[in-house]
Amino acid sequence: MLFASMLFTAKTFLGLTTFAGTLNTGVENSASRTYVLVHGAWSSSAGLEQVKERLEKAGQKVILVSLPGHGTDQTPPGTLTMDVYRDKTIEAINAVQGKVILVGHSMAGIVISAVAEKIPNRIDKLVYLAAYLPADGQSLLDLATTDKESYLGNALIPSEDHSTIGVKTEVIVPAFCQDAPDGVKSVVVSTFRVEPAIPLTNKVSLTAANFGRLPKYYIHTLQDHTVSPALQQRMVATAPHVVKEYSLDSSHTPFLSMPDQLVDVLLKIGK
């Protein structure tokens, strides 16, 4: 699960942050690749704008997927499923030519796995950023309930009709972004939006012939209080074809606290 909804523009984000610095990534420009970035729960594509800007500065093509029911989208939560998220991501991929590097943060690890099963020939590499990495027949809830170290265990607030799930306000920052600048923390809390619940319970069907054969990369977040490092390690240990792992000494949201380092890793994966 993931971080609070970021309903601000890249320009506003830059105005709030002091960590952004220059757009130099420290990695030389490589051949242009297309990165498709999918945000997680309690989040929106706005939180990934700084990564997009840096990747584009390095000569890459970037698509940010905005999942229904997040950001400013007002799709009723009761109509949303993991298949809806999958199909929205496939729509974004179909809008470009060639294979893509598909990156999923947190909950979007389930999304990109479902996409990989559906259109494996359009994907060059799968990248899991502090993400849930499922096996066949698993849902996000199946994995999250095994994570005894997550701060979210006793902090979730389901709605009366169980169509959405919130998080206790006092837990938002320590769970998702304890290492972000203070201004960013304030925005994360003030723009927080409850998460559609149904997709979190949907199990994914995955096969060795499609999902299993694609090369996978995992970016561990060592100070993660949402998807604990221990769960990250367990998921990687049982996943097929994980070819390389990277680590960032960050919270669950390195795109907020250390975007330059995250982009360095993404560029290395893209080589």
Give the termini separation.
29 Å
Helix and strand composition category: alpha/beta
CATH-derived topology:
Rossmann fold
In order across it, which strands form the biggest sheet?
2-1-3-4-8-9
Can you tell me the residue ranges where pLDDT is under 50 for at least 5 consecutive residues? Answer: 1-29
On the 0 to 100 scale, the average pLDDT is 91
Largest sheet: 6 strands, parallel
Question: Which superfamily, in CATH terms, is the homologous superfamily?
Answer: Alpha/Beta hydrolase fold, catalytic domain
Taken together, the total number of domains comes to 1
> SSE order, as H and E?
HEHEHEHEHEEHHEHEHEHH
- Overall number of strands: 9
Q: Could you explain the architecture of this structure?
A:
The structure is a single chain. The protein has 271 residues and is an alpha/beta fold. The protein has one domain (10-270): Rossmann fold (3-Layer(aba) Sandwich). It is 34% helix and 17% strand. The chain has eleven helices and nine strands. The chain has helices at residues 10-16, 49-57, 82-94, 108-118, 140-144, 169-176, 182-190, 198-201, 229-238, 254-257, 259-270, and strands spanning 34-38, 61-65, 100-105, 123-129, 156-158, 164-167, 195-196, 216-221, 242-248. The strands form two sheets. A six-stranded parallel sheet has the order 2-1-3-4-8-9, with helices on both faces. A three-stranded antiparallel sheet has the order 5-6-7. Helix 4 links the parallel strand 3 (100-105) and strand 4 (123-129). Helix 2 packs across helix 11 (259-270) and helix 3 crosses helix 4. It is globular. The model is unreliable at 1-29 (pLDDT under 50).
